[in-house]
Write a structure and sequence with these properties.
The chain is of the alpha/beta class. Helix content is 56%, strand content 13%. The chain contains 6 helices and 5 strands, in the order E-H-H-E-H-H-E-H-H-E-E. The two termini are 25 Å apart.
Length: 130
């Protein structure tokens, strides 16, 4: 991972950007951020379901050329396992992909930017709610 990144963007923030949201555009033009590889997968999945599949896919491809994409590795798996076990013990599950995103956030000490309030269930992840 490249150094200097402070924020990790969730899928919903990038979707806002793609929809022309000025707040998302302003944030992304001024704040250092990275994108989890899981988010790239979610964006490409959405593009594959879209009526304008080719246009949406190009939008995602252009984004990933311009940003730092944070990859999952063996260490990420350790963070994932701890988070998932903690959520299970507390009986507070969240979507599987979001556990991976949280794991990357913790692993790289990045502030997660999201609209999803269920990230509050993961106490050690700092979250910047939109």
């Amino acid at each position: 991972m490249q150094t200097g990144s402070e924020y990790l963007l969730d899928t919903n923030i990038i979707v806002d950007l793609f929809r022309g949201d000025q707040k998302a555009a302003d944030f992304m033009s001024t704040a250092p951020f990275s994108v989890p590889v899981i988010v790239v997968g979610e964006l490409l999945y959405g593009a594959n379901l879209a009526q304008l599949k080719e246009q949406r896919t190009k939008q995602v491809e252009e984004l990933i050329k311009q940003v730092n994409v944070v990859q999952v590795d063996e260490e990420t798996s350790e963070f994932y396992a701890k988070i998932k076990a903690d959520l299970k013990h507390r009986g507070t599950p969240i979507p599987e992909n979001d556990i991976w995103i949280a794991a990357l956030s913790e692993q790289h000490s990045l502030i997660l930017v999201t609209k999803d309030s269920h990230f509050k269930k993961i106490l050690s992840v700092e979250v910047n709610f939109w």
